[in-house]
Amino acid sequence: MTAEITPIKTAAESGLAAAFAALRGRLPDGAVAARREAAFRRFEAQGLPHRRVEEWKYTDLRVLMRDAKPLAGAPDAGARARAKAAGGVFAMIGARRVVFVDGAFAPELSDLAALEPGLKISSLADALSRGDPPPLPPLRAGEGRETERLAAAGPAAGDVAYELNTAFMGDGAIVEVGAGAEIARPLHLVFFYGAQRSAAVFSRSLVIVGAGAGLTLLESHEGPDGVDYQVNTALDLVVGDGGRLNRIKVNAEGGEALHLATLSATIGAKANVSDFAFLTGGLVVRNQLFVRCAGAGTTLALGGASLLKGRQHGDTTLLVDHAAGGCEGRELFKSVLDGASRGVFQGKIIVRPGAQKTDSRMMTRALLLSEDAEADNKPELEIFADDVQCGHGATSGALDENLKFYLMARGIPEKEAEALLIQSFVGEAIEMVPHEGVRDVLMAATLRWLGGRP
Amino acid sequence: MPAVQETVERVRLIDVDQYKYGFETLIESEKAPKGLSEDTIRFISAKKNEPAWLLEWRLGAYRHWLTMREPRWARVDYPPIDYQDIYYYAAPKQAVAPKSLDEVDPEILRTYEKLGIPLREQELLAGVARRPGGEAADGSPERARPVAVDAVFDSVSVATTFKNELKKAGVIFMPISEAVREHPELVKQYLGSVVPVSDNFFATLNSAVFSDGSFVYVPPGVRCPMELSTYFRINERNSGQFERTLIIADKGAYVSYLEGCTAPRRDENQLHAAVVELIALDDAEIKYSTVQNWYPGDAQGRGGIFNFVTKRGHCRGHRSRISWTQVETGSAITWKYPSCILRGDHSRGEFYSIAISNGRQQVDSGTKMLHLGRNTTSRIISKGIAAGHSNNTYRGLVSAHRRAVGARNFTNCDSLLIGNHCGAHTVPYIESKNPTAVFEHEATTSKISEEILFYCMQRGLSQEDAVALVVNGFVRDVLQQLPMEFAVEAQKLISISLEGSVG
After folding, report:
1. Mean pLDDT over residues A139-160, rounded?
2. CA angle A415, A418, A421 (to 5 degrees)
3. Does the distance separating the beta carbons of A392 and B432 come in below 8 Å?
4. Taking CB atoms and an 8 Å limit, are A386 and B500 in contact across chains?
5. Which residues from B are below 8 Å from A394, CB to CB?
């Protein structure tokens, strides 16, 4: 059209604008007021993304996010009581729990005793109300203290969900692992939605793994069924040279929840980073990973398994930016789609000029179990260096009838045969997780999901 | 893996400075006034002696075009096009329409001879080998099968050969402007039925101002007795070429169609916005091959053709089949996505592409396979090679409709980078709404079957030889899709080894 299209604001957009205006000055601000303001202006300029916005092509928030919920208040006693059982999925691991209820840090439910040397855990809200400079990630890994890196922008900068998070961020964890410290006990960030009515939660965490340090980070998100709450969570991650981080995120949000999650990671040289997302919960979920390999010789393993049914919409969007050479990337994402669910995978690998010897492989597979399920895959490559090996593969299809027949011919009932095949399909992705106990937890969760199939 | 030396040499040989068809033919021509308006469209329509319905159709397209915006989603970057600074109609000046080749300006005939396309049938029959876009062939007699040619020079078709032989078989092959007058019922029924008037910015522009192109109708059960081809030549300065091709294969018919294109070497950018529509009814098959060799601009990116083309085939009937093969080496900007709508049950769509970019060329090309019918199959094989400062993008969509039971797609796209100033990109969209649809997409050379490699190596081949053997075998597969006349030219391009490919 020749005339500039002025989109009419959706209810959600107007709601967000009103909420932001009302909250001005009431959020823990400190030095980030300007930052919030700028982020919200950037959001306002774009509005909620829709299908004409390439990055959000398959997740049309103008349609999927009908309204903006009010910001969640302080959790009541009931919510706090229910939160005690939250994150039970990782109970067997014996991890150190850091609990957030309705987005607010709950020290009384967290285990902050006897922190290992080199490990520091604090709350974002505290840092903000003390007026500390905003803890935003640095441009380059391993430089100075996080609070000194004011103007730096992470790889997720500019993304709508991330900008909204910056505008509204309330609380979250600030975790620092000092250089060379190897933290053996996994750290578990528990995010629990305990309110009985609809509200919105914006949590923002920052994890800094120093040079040569190591950490296993667990993250779980859960909430009640039947409440249409909204979660926008973001994690800024910085891994220094030679650092090791294994992150496993379990999304078991309530059946009506909207969950937008952003990982904004900057990784130094010769580091080893893995990330795995296990998704069964929520109604509309978008898990987006922005990973920037800023140093050479890093190994990256990103994976995920999405098990969806009913009207669930699960979107995994990935952007791996190889800014330095000699990195190895392995990505494997699987989705099992039942009912009228929709699985979306968008993965983009960028190899910048000069990032020679990059070796990056991405695979995405979708298994459609029902007539009404839908799988959309968009694996992208953007390559500006000639001495690299990059590849991607994408498949989608139903269960192999021959394999099913083989099992049934050996006396295994149809449903069990299907379950076995799905289990092995998902299992291939779960195998990527380095922590054995966590692998068992995820396999068990897969079985539970299969058990719940009609 | 970096590219091997042989590959680098081959690509250098077809670099932008090596463009061989950049000469200009000096003839007097007749042009429409510069710029685009309803008057321009009335002028073109009057020149073509068109019926009123077609003029209305054009004007409707133009009015809709005024409300549209130029698409910006492709990975191509070019200065804004001034649509008022283009001649939309340019034709060699002639007192009367030529009745036979003898009346055609000899200068034009010489131009086509220089391009390797003799238009005189006796020469063709005498065994003068021809290859669109190529220099003289080695002339071996078995190559000299007759090929019917429609030669389009700027905005008009100057000659169509073998019309009578084709008529005997019942095949209609003529410029579309003639078809409008002689077979209005067919044109009216099918024109715009695959690429609707409002389809996209460039297709709508084409609908408003298209000047000539080829029309093919193959009646039921007829296997077209010879290859049909159209050779497009842009000659006039500041002009755009907007051709429109419409090919209909009726029930059980078969036709193979070739397209070649070249343009003079100039510092200005010229616009080429074509629309090609293919329609295959029950059991029909259409093979469409292109060797696109428009002037690519010089090494600094000055000049060259902006090639914005909409090509779409509609497998309307059951068991119909449409196959696109393209070898893309020319144009400064290529924006082209030959697609297949697989509506008929058991229909099949194919897309074989080799896109080579060099200098400052930008290619954004690919395909769409839309599976609508039951048990439809499609296959996409795309090879992109980027050298110099060029950018080469594959952009493709494979989708299965909810009712597309048993849809099957296999996609393979490889790209190769030569040098570190170019870019290769892959943007596939894979959308499945049916559980029985099986889609596979791969973009890596490491997918050569380990078993085959093992088999070869077990018999004493080194790994490199084994890979070369497999790759050559695979490339030959693509080559075989090309009609013989094109194969030689393409062979030269494709003999480029794919070692060192990246996704």
Report:
1. 56
2. 150
3. no
4. yes
5. 428, 430, 439-442
Reduced to 3 states (helix: H, G, I; strand: E, B; else coil), residue B333 is strand
User: In chain A, which residues have their Cβ closer than 8 Å to the Cβ of B200?
Assistant: none
The burial class, CB within 10 Å (0-12 / 13-18 / 19+), for B75 is: middle
- Sequence letter at residue B208: A
Look up the pTM and report it: 0.85
How many interchain CB pairs under 8 A, A with B?
138
| pLDDT average per 10 residues of sequence, chain B (503 residues) | 58 67 77 88 90 94 94 89 89 66 74 72 46 38 60 77 85 91 93 93 94 91 89 82 93 91 81 94 94 83 90 96 88 93 95 86 94 94 84 93 92 80 90 91 58 84 69 57 60 45 40
Find the CB nearest A1 among B67, B422, B447.
B67
Residue located via tokens 């959020």: A27
Within 8 A of B442 by CB-CB distance, chain A residues are 391-394
- Interface residues of A toward B, Cβ cutoff 8 Å, are 1-2, 54, 353-354, 356, 361, 366, 368-398
**Mutation target vs B (from A56, A319, A369, A396; most B CBs, 10 A cutoff):** A396
Which of B246, B227, B238 lies closest to B485 in space, CA to CA?
A: B227
- The answer to whether A380 contacts B422, with C-beta atoms less than 8 Å apart, is no
Choice among A103-107, A418-422, B258-262, B357-361 with the minimum mean pLDDT: B258-262
CA distances from B243 to A81, A327, A451, B47, B240 (A): 73, 48, 60, 15, 10
Contact call for residues B323 and B288 (beta carbons, < 8 A) = yes
Distance from the A391 Cα atom to the nearest Cα atom in chain B, whole angstroms: 4
Q: Output the DSSP codes for B149-193.
A: EEEEETTEEEEE-SHHHHHHHT-EEEEHHHHHHH-HHHHHHHTTS
Token pair 């680098």 in the structure block, residue: B8
Interface of B with A in 396-425 (CB under 8 A): 402, 415, 417-425
Q: Provide the ipTM.
A: 0.84
Tokens matching residue A48: 């909620």
Which amino acid belongs to residue B243? Answer: E
Residue A281 is given by DSSP the state -
A58-100 pLDDT per residue, tens: 999 999 998 999 999 889 999 999 999 999 999 999 999 999 9
- With CA atoms as reference, the chain B residue closest to A396 would be B439
Beta carbons of A183 and A119 less than 8 angstroms apart: yes
Residue ranges of B 51-80 with Cβ closer than 8 A to chain A: 66-69, 73
Give me the residues paired with residue B313 across strands: B278, B340
For B70, the closest chain A residue by CA position comes to A1
Instruction: Say if the Cβ atoms of B443 and A392 lie within 8 Å.
Output: yes
Task: Return the bridge partners of B261, or none.
Answer: B232, B292
DSSP B21-59: --------EEEPPSS-SHHHHHHHHHHTT--HHHHHHHH
**Amino acid letter, B30:** E
Inform me whether the C-beta atom of residue B432 falls under 8 Å from chain A C-beta atoms.
Answer: yes
For residue B243, the Cα-to-chain-centroid distance in whole angstroms is: 12
Strands B423-432 and A374-383: antiparallel
Domain boundaries, chain A: 11-295
- Give the mean pLDDT of A303-321: 96
Closest CA relative to residue B313, chosen from B292, B344, B334: B344
Output the DSSP codes for A106-145: -GGGS--TTPPTTEEEEEHHHHHHTTPPP----SSTT-S-
Tell me whether B2 touches chain A (CB under 8 Å).
Answer: yes
Strand B90-92 relative to strand B29-31, pairing: antiparallel
Reference B362, options B340, B332, B404, B338; nearest CA is B332
Closest CA to A54 of B367, B395, B306, B439: B395
Which H helix or E strand runs over B278? Answer: strand B275-280
CB within 8 Å: A389 and B446: yes
